[in-house]
Amino acid sequence: MRQAGDEVPRAVILFGPPGSGKGTQAHLLKEALRAPHISTGDMLRERIASGDALGVQVRELMQAGRLVPDEVVNQLVEDRIGSGDCAGGFILDGYPRTIQQAVELDGKLKRRGFAPVVIHLKVDYNKIIARIAGRRQCPVCGTLYSLSSNPPRRPDLCDEDGAVLAVRDDDREAVIRERLEAYDRQTRPLLEYFAATGNPFHELDGSEGSPQEILSRIAGALRLG
Questions:
Q1: Residue tagged active-site, from 22, 80, 131, 217
Q2: Which domains, from first to last, does the chain contain?
Q3: Tell me, what's the pLDDT at 224?
Q4: Measured between alpha carbons, how far is 74 from 117 in angstroms, rounded to an integer?
Q5: CA–CA dist 194, 155 (Å, integer)
Q6: Could you say which of 3, 47, 99, 101 is the most buried, measured as most Cβ atoms within 10 Å of its Cβ?
Q7: Under a CB-based contact definition with an 8 Å cutoff, are residues 171 and 135 in contact?
């Protein structure tokens, strides 16, 4: 992930609301940068599977339906970015989520010699709502359809077994709007914090274009290629 002339490996911090395609971009960036993609959700699952003391603590918290505290998540991130495969840089997805996590992360990156770069995918929320609310799923075989890009051959019926397609609960417009509003409340202070640090901060259009075209915008911001 070091570029010619770079002295400091970069930590790419990727933000984007639900439905923005952030997960797709994180995967594409992993390939383009040849750098690990670090997802807090994946880290929590991996740590639980490891069976070590911290993994046991995380499992007990999650089984009790409690949020994993900032200090535990911060420790997981610190352990992960200290791994050998992160020495040349990495992509963070889903972290930080709070100002306290952001402050901790900033200190960790400085101590370890990483240069943070924030990429924020801005999207038109109406387009996100239309995209997600247009999804339909077969309750029998699980096939997923999009009314705009991948519609069934017969309206409201599954191509595979003819079952009546359903709208998933988390794809209903009211639920999507609530998730987007929660993202705004949670993320806006973080974006303002990172913008104020003076570190590279890029807001890019994630509403228009194919995944590869959006990747090209990110690559341009990171000065790849």
A1: 22
A2: 10-124+188-222 (3.40.50.300)
A3: 67
A4: 19
A5: 46
A6: 47
A7: yes
- Of 34, 110, 154, 168, the catalytic one is 168
The half-sphere exposure of 36 on its side-chain side, counting CA atoms within 13 A, is: 17
The pTM score is 0.79
Catalytic, 168? Answer: yes
pLDDT, one tens digit per residue, over 41-68 is: 888 888 899 999 988 988 898 888 787 8
* Residue in 141, 70, 134, 128 with CA at minimum distance from that of residue 103: 70
The β-bridge partners of 41 are none
Report, as ranges of residue numbers, the positions in the chain whose pLDDT lies below 50. Answer: 2-5, 225
Which residue intervals of the chain are DSSP H helices?
22-33, 40-50, 53-63, 70-81, 99-112, 125-133, 173-197, 211-222
* Whole-angstrom Cα Rg for the chain: 19
Of the residues 2, 45, 97, 127, which is catalytic? 97
The pLDDT assigned to 9 comes to 92
pLDDT at position 200: 94
